[in-house]
Amino acid sequence: MQIPTATYRLQFNVDFGFQTAAQVISYLADLGVSDVYASPIFQARKASRHGYDITDANQLNPELGDTSDFETLMGIVKAYRMGWLQDIVPNHMAFDHENAMLMDVLENGSQSAYYNFFDIDWDRPAGKSGLLAPFLGRPYGESLENGEIKLAYDDAGFSIQYYRQRFPVKIETFVAILADLLAEFKKRLQKERPVFTALQNLWRRLKALCNKKMGALQKQQLHFIKSALWDIYCTRQPFQQLVEKTLRAYNGRKGFPESFNALDRLLSQQIYRLAYWKVAATEINYRRFFDINELIALRVENEAVFNHTHDLILRLSRKKQFSGLRIDHIDGLYDPAAYLRKLREKAGDLYIVVEKILGPEEPLAQDWPVQGTTGYEFGAVLNAMFCRRAQAHRFQKIYAEFTGPDTTGPDILREIKQRVLTRQMSGDLDNLARLMKQIAGTLRQGADMIPNRLKRALAETLARLPVYRTYIVPDGTGALDRKLIQASIQRASRDNPNLAPELALIRHVLLLDYGKALPGKNAAGIDKKLWIRTAMKFQQLSSALMAKGYEDTFFYVYNRLISLNEVGASPEGFGCRRRMFHEFNTTRARCWPHGLNATATHDSKRGEDVRARINVLSELPGEWKRAIDRWHAINRGLKKMVNEAPAPDKNEEYFLYQTLIGAFPFYDRELPLFTERIKAYMVKAAREAKVNTGWLTPNSAYEEALAAFAGEILSPCEENFFLREFLPFQQKIAWYGILNSLSQVLIKITAPGIPDFYQGAELWDLNLVDPDNRRTVDFDNRRAFLEKIDKKAASDPLGLIGDLFSDPGDGKLKLFLIRTALRARNRYRAVFDSGTYLPLNVCGKYREHVLAFARSAGSATSVTVAPRFFTGLERIGKFPLGSLIWQDTEIFLPEDHSAYWEDVFTRESFSAKTSLRIAEILTHFPVAMLINKRRSTP
User: Fold this and answer.
1) Most CB within 10 Å of its CB: which of 233, 319, 580, 726?
2) Are both 476 and 361 inside the same structural domain?
3) H helices then E strands: how many in the chain?
C-alpha cells in the first residue's frame, strides 16, 4: 500500500483540466506533497464545477481532456514518484438527460437492464404515475399551457424537452407516434411507396422490441432503427414535413388550453411524471443526495450496480493509476461496511479513506477496512484548541443580548431538523412511515396505528438522533448503535408521551428485535426483510437529514462563534481541554495513523485562516461586545424595512460582522471584489438559514435589502463611519489570526495522520463556502513565491525569515512553514508514518499558551512547539519571540534522547537533556519543529 505523506486537493472542472494540472505537479512535488487528491474526474453534467453530478462513471470527463491528456498527466505524476488519491461517488448520479443509464430506464421501463440500478420506489402509491421528475419551474399545468414542455424529434428519437432537459418517450409511445405518421403517410403520399415500405418495416421492428428485455443486441437494434428513421427524416422532405406537422399538433398553441390535450395524454403515458420542482418535498419517490432533486441515488449494494459503476475505477487502480480512493458520502449507502468490504476485496491493497463526519464522542468503526476518514474530526479538535473555553458563558451572554432570547443549541437543532423533515423531506419521511405502517399492520399492537402518528414518531426520533447515522446491519445491532437509538427514543417518549406505542414499535424495528415485547407474534412469523429494509432506510434518511439540518441550516442559524460552525465540529461546544487534544492524538496514532488531517476542504463553510481569525474573538469578549454594539449603532440607519422588519435581522448582522472579521482581505485593492463576494455569500447564508428567505421560497425583496446593506457598510467612501471603526479592530484580529494559522498548520503537518491541503491554502485561505472556495487558484504566483523562498533559504534562513516578516499579508510566511515542515516530514518519514505520539509537559508563566508534543520512531524524534492565545502574549504587529515574552516557560523533552536538537525553520541547534526554554526555541520564528536523530549513550 502506498501511504501518502501529504495530500493536495485539486478541483477539476472545465477551467482546470488534465493539461493544466500537469503544469502544477512539479510545484506540488517541490512543496513536499506526495499525493494529488483529485476531485471526481469522471463524466459529469456539462460545465459541472465540482464533478459530483456524474453521468457515466466509466468514462473520463471529456471536458477535462482526452485519454492521452490523462495518460500524460499520470506519467508526470509517476515521474515525480507521487501518488493519486481519487475521489469517487458511489452513492448517486445526475438526474439528467446526459445520464444514459437513467434515460434507458425512462425509455424501456422494467425491460431496461438498469431498471433496478437507481434507488426508485416503484411501488410507492405516487409511483403509479411514474418516477417523479421534479424539474419544472412552475406548476405542471402552467408549464404545459405556456408551451415550455415540448415533444421533439432528433437522431435519438422522439423526446420530451423542457429547456435544456430532455426525457425520452417510452418505446410504446414511439411506436404509437410512428403508427400515426405511417397512416398519414399512406393516405397523403402514395407516390412515396418505397419510403412508406421502409418506414413500415422499421415500425414493425420497433414494435417487436416492445416488452423485450433490452440487452446489448436489442439496444443495437434500437440504435439502428433510430438512425435509419433519422436518415429518412433528413433526406425525405415529405416525411420531414409530416413529422414537423405532428410535432406542432402535439405542442399546441399558447392561449388555447385544449390544444395541449394530446401532449398531456402522451405525458401521462410515460414512465416519469414531470412536476413542479417544489413537489419533490412531499411526493418524492426516489432517494436523492440530501434533498437535491438533480442527484438520484444508486443501489450500489446490488452486485451488478457495484460492478458496473466501479469498472473504470478498478481498472485504473489495477493499472496503478490510482494509488488511493476517497469514498464520497459513505453514510448515504445502504450498508457502508458491506460496501467497503466488497471494495477492499476487489481493489486490493489500495489506500482508502472515507468521507465520514463523526460526532464528538463517536469513533470510526474499527471493522471498516479503511485507513481512516478525510479528517473532519481532526480539523474540529485542532480548531477548538484555539478557542478559549473559559469564555463560553460570556460569549453565550453576548450573543443572547445582541440577537434576542437565549436559546440553547440542541433545542434549535431539534426544531430545525423537524422543520426540514416537514418542509424539504416530507416525502422521504412519508416513504419511511409507509414501511413502518406495513410492519404495524402485521402486529396486534400496531393494527390501529395510523400513518400520521407513525410519521410524527419517526420525525421525533430522527430529530433527536445525535449522530449522522447508526450502522445497524441485517446481522444485528452494535452496542453503541443500540445505545444511540434507545436514548433518542427515550427523549422522544419523554417529550411526546402520547406517541409511546408508536415509539415502542420504532425502537423494536430499528434494533431488529424481532418479536420481543410483541405478544401475539413470534419472530418466525415476522417479515424480517421488511424490518431490515425499514431500519436501513431510516439510517439513510437520518444522514441526509443531519446534513441538511445541521450543516446546511443550523450552522447559519446558531451564530455564537461561527469559527465553530464547521463540518465535523460542534457549534454548541466551545474550546477543548489540552488533555483531550492529546488523548485524541494518542488514539489516532494507535488506531488511525493514516487518516487525513484536514483543516480546509471543498465542503468547508469558511477557509482555515478565516476560522483562525474568528477564534481570536474568543480571547477578547469585552472588546468584541463593545465593537458590535458600536457597529450596530452606526449601521442601524442603513437597514431597509421588508415586511415591517429590518433587513438584516440581528442574528444575520451578528453573523456578518464575524464573517467580515474573518474574511476581510489584507490589501485595499481587493476590497471591490471582496464586497461582491460578501453580498453573494450573505444571500446564500440567509437562504441556508431559511428564516427570512430560502431556497424553496426565496424572498427577493429581503435578499436585495440584505445585499445592499453589506455593500453599503463596505463602501470605501469618506462618510463610511463603520469602516473607520471596523478596520483597526479587524486588523488587530487579523494579526493574531496569522499567528494562530502558523501554529495550526504546523500541528496539522506533525500530528498523527496525513496532512491534507486544499488547493491554494498554502497561502492565506480567506475563502468562504462554495462556490467562493472553488475560484481559480494562481499557481504561477505560488510557484514564484516558492522559488524565491528556496533560493534564499539555502544560504540565509534567518535573513529569509526577516524578509517574510516584513509583509506577512502576502502569505509567503505560511508557504515557507509548509514547505519546510513537509520536507522534514518526508526526510523523517518513519517518525510520522508510524511514530509514537507523546504529549510534552509545559511549565512556567505561559504554559497554557503552548501546545507541545513529540513523535518518535527508531533513533529519530520530532518535537512540535505551537503557541496559541496570542492576545495575552504580545501586542499587534509584534511576533511573540524571546525571553521578554516567554520568560520562564519551558517544555520537558522526551527521555532517553541525546541533548542535541535542531529547528528545521531556523536551522539553529539547541543542547538540552531534560527541558528547553521556550524563549530559547522561539527566538527567531513563532513556532518550532525540532529534530533529534540520536539516542543518548548509556
Assistant:
1) 726
2) no
3) 35, 29
Exposure pattern of 809-840 as b/e (b: 16+ CB <10 Å)?
ebbbbbbbbbbbbbebbeebeebbbebebbbb
- List strand residue ranges (DSSP E) for 686-809, in order: 754-758
Residue type, 398: I
Q: Are 133 and 140 in contact (CB under 8 A)?
A: no
| 731 in Cβ contact with 670 (< 8 Å) | no
Bridge partners of residue 649, in order along the sequence:
none
838 close to 854: Cβ distance less than 8 angstroms: yes
Helix runs in 442-597, H state only: 451-464, 479-495, 500-510, 528-546, 578-591
Phi and psi torsions of 94, nearest 5°: -75, 135
Closest C-alpha among 179, 154, 158, 306 to residue 233: 154
- Hey, what amino acid is at 658? Q
C-alpha cell at position 462: 430522527
C-alpha cell at 598: 484536514
Q: Report how far residue 225's alpha carbon sits from residue 458's, in angstroms, rounded to the nearest whole number.
A: 50
274 and 138 fall within a common domain: yes
Q: What's the CA gap between 263 and 268, in Å, rounded? A: 9
Say what angle helices 426-440 and 451-464 make with each other, to 10 degrees: 120
Could you tell me the sign of the dihedral formed by the alpha carbons of 330, 331, 333, 338, in that order? positive
Per-residue confidence (pLDDT) for residue 188, from 0 to 100: 72
Residue 165, SS3? strand
Burial class (CB in 10 A: 0-12, 13-18, 19+), 303: exposed
78 and 159 part of one domain: no
802 membership: H or E segment, kind and range: helix 797-806
Do 325 and 352 meet the contact criterion of CB atoms below 8 Å apart?
yes
Report which DSSP code applies to 563.
G
**Closest C-alpha to 721, from 631, 604, 623:** 631
617/706 Cα distance (integer angstroms): 24
| Pairing label, strands 292-297, 157-162 | unpaired
Domain range for 313: 7-91+298-374
The answer to whether residues 111 and 83 belong to one domain is no
Query: Which residues of the chain fall below pLDDT 70?
Result: 124-128, 189-191, 406-407, 516-524, 934-938
Cβ-based neighbours of 500, under 8 Å, separated by 6 or more: 493
The total number of residues written for the chain in this structure:
938
- Domain-located, residue 650: yes
| pLDDT at site 938 | 37
Q: Is the pTM of this model over 0.70?
A: yes
Q: How far is CA 451 from the centre of its chain?
A: 33
Query: Does 434 reside within a domain?
Result: yes
What is the rounded CA–CA span in Å between residue 322 and residue 60? 13
Domain boundary among 264, 289, 314: 289
Residues 63, 84: Cα–Cα separation, whole Å? 20
> Are 419 and 504 part of one and the same domain?
yes
- 716-773 confidence digits (pLDDT tens): 998 899 999 999 999 999 999 999 999 999 999 999 999 999 999 999 999 999 999 9
- Taking only the tens place, the pLDDT of each residue in 856-896 is 998 899 999 999 999 999 888 899 999 999 999 999 998 87
In a domain, 283, yes or no: yes
Separation of alpha carbons 706 and 712, rounded Å:
10
The x, y and z cell numbers of residue 11, run together, are 478541483
901, β-bridge pairs: 910
Going by C-alpha positions, the residue among 625, 629, 600 that lies closest to residue 758 is 600
Name the strands in the sheet holding 842-843, side by side, starting at the edge strand that comes first in the sequence. 842-843, 890-892, 915-917
Residue with cell 461496511: 337
